[in-house]
Amino acid sequence: MKVETLDNGIRVYTLPIEGVKTIGIGIYVNIGSIYEEKDYRGISHFLEHMMFKTNKKYKAHEIDMGLELNGGLANAVTSAHYTLYFFECIKESFNKIVDVLYSIFENSSYIEEEFENEKKVIISEIERCDNDPEEKLYNLVQKSVFGESDYGERIGGSIETIKNITKDILEEFKAKYYSPKNMFIILEGNVGEKEMDTIRKYFSMLEGDDVKLKRPSKDKGRDIYEEMDTKDIIYYAISKDFDLKDLLKAYTLSSIISGGISSKIFQIFRNKYGIGYHVFLEYTLTYPDSFIFTFGVPGFDKEKENKIYDAIDDLLNERITEDYINGRINRLNLKFQKSRNLLFERIPTDAFLIKYFGITYDNLLEIVKKESKNIEDLNKMLKDVFEGYEVWIKPK
Questions:
Q1: DSSP tag of 234
Q2: Which superfamily does CATH assign the domain made up of 2-203 to?
Q3: pLDDT band at 162 (very low <50, low <70, confident <90, very high)
Q4: Which of 82, 272, 305, 344 is deepest in the core (most CB within 10 A)?
Q5: At what angle do helices 247-257 and 364-371 cross, to 10 degrees?
Q6: In the CATH scheme, what is the homologous superfamily, with its name and number, of domain 224-395?
Q7: Dmax over Cα atoms in the chain, in whole Å?
């Protein structure tokens, strides 16, 4: 992996991947919900939507068509502390795709009608999530760990805060935070100096000042109990925050304990107790200094409510063994072999790993092998998760 800093401050990481014919592009902006003003919570996510609307060079439909009809895929995600735009395209269309991407990031104003239409879309999205118990469970996890704070409020904001956002406020937000000094770019796959020249040509033209992010607030967590019309189905999660330096250990533990029919979670919760269809242990949200590690059962019959703690006790008392770990690493190895060249799927992982750990997806398997040797540490982390805060959503 190579890194170059353009004259305007944008860092560009290039990661050639042998045997891959396409090119992956990730554009990481160091802004997310925890840095927003409380009255405008959700503005980062709102801007993510507006980025693909009409700009000075292309109309909204031309952006969509320009990406897809030139052999490109596009997506974006807003997190608590960053926004990521990621793309994959055929090599022959790289220059055209970059031209479209530059127009998106260089643009400074939007059309009022498109802005208001997108506001309605986002409000509908929030209403849908509020009425979906599984979506609500994930949103309440943040609040259960960090309370009423920047860290605890949901990424997409509320209907009230979205209504507060005007087009002028959104444009000012973009001008302030979408500075070249507050972003970096990743190029992966079939990339070389020719592609790097194209990035230099376009993205060196971006302008912007130094960015100062506010210090986000945290608050104490608490257990949360809510009732919804869930048709006799219960939704449950227990979560705890850990220091970000322990994230790779958590990834290892999650890979070993959760996922697939051979996992301890599947064997205990599904096979032994018949609790839930999708039971998981994973880090559900990251922050600049920490992450939330969550055990969740998003949907199980209320008749099994009294059994969930028995199943958790079984999980904690059935200790992780070396033989079990070796088998799970074999499973993970297959997953890595199959997904290593899927650029559109790995770019979000690479962007985060490069930013905070200086590694890429290709390093993860060896890290899991190394971390998995510390069985006692993994067992301790597993127990620590269940000392966290609970979220229960029960039928009315």
A1: E
A2: Metalloenzyme, LuxS/M16 peptidase-like (3.30.830.10)
A3: very high
A4: 82
A5: 80
A6: Metalloenzyme, LuxS/M16 peptidase-like (3.30.830.10)
A7: 63
